[in-house]
Design a protein that fits this description.
Blueprint lengths: L18 H7 L17 E4 L2 E4 L5 E2 L2 E2 L11 H22 L6 E12 L7 H16 L6 E7 L8 E9 L3
Helix pairs in contact: 2-3
Protein name: Enamine deaminase RidA, house cleaning of reactive enamine intermediates, YjgF/YER057c/UK114 family
Length: 170
Amino acid sequence: MHSEDAVVETPVNPKTKSPLERLRELGIDLPGFNPAAANYVPVTRRGELLYTAGQTPKKEGALVYKGKLGDNISDQEGYDAVMLCTLNTLTLLDHFADGLNNIDQILKVTVFLNCTPEYVHHSKVADGATDLLVSVFGDAGRPARSSVGVNALPGGAACEVEMIAALKSK
């Protein structure tokens, strides 16, 4: 699952297509908005920066990937789960930026992986986020990134993704 083997490819010139057009060409629709699950806001804006809350691999409000990498979740399932978390994060950015066209750059992505203590493929699985972001935003979607193994995540989620994005100057 290295970037050269990525499931998501960049078939279009990011400068000539909008992010939503690129998603459509990849056969991907943004999922529905998942409301905050506790006492927090989904996005905080400071100046031209958007900070997202962590997004788990939910679809239509239901957790799709539950469990631990290195146990009952394979690397490919983890990659797919991270991609779903990233799509949920893009849904937030689309809403709070008034469209993905208003995103200038993805600055930072943090991927939390619910995994066993012995698990070591964090970066390969976290490529599910970066591969998608580069397909949607081109080089502006290649962020600084951290991938962190944790003992547990909300609801038993296999992963969680949070992001910092810069808005285009107006």
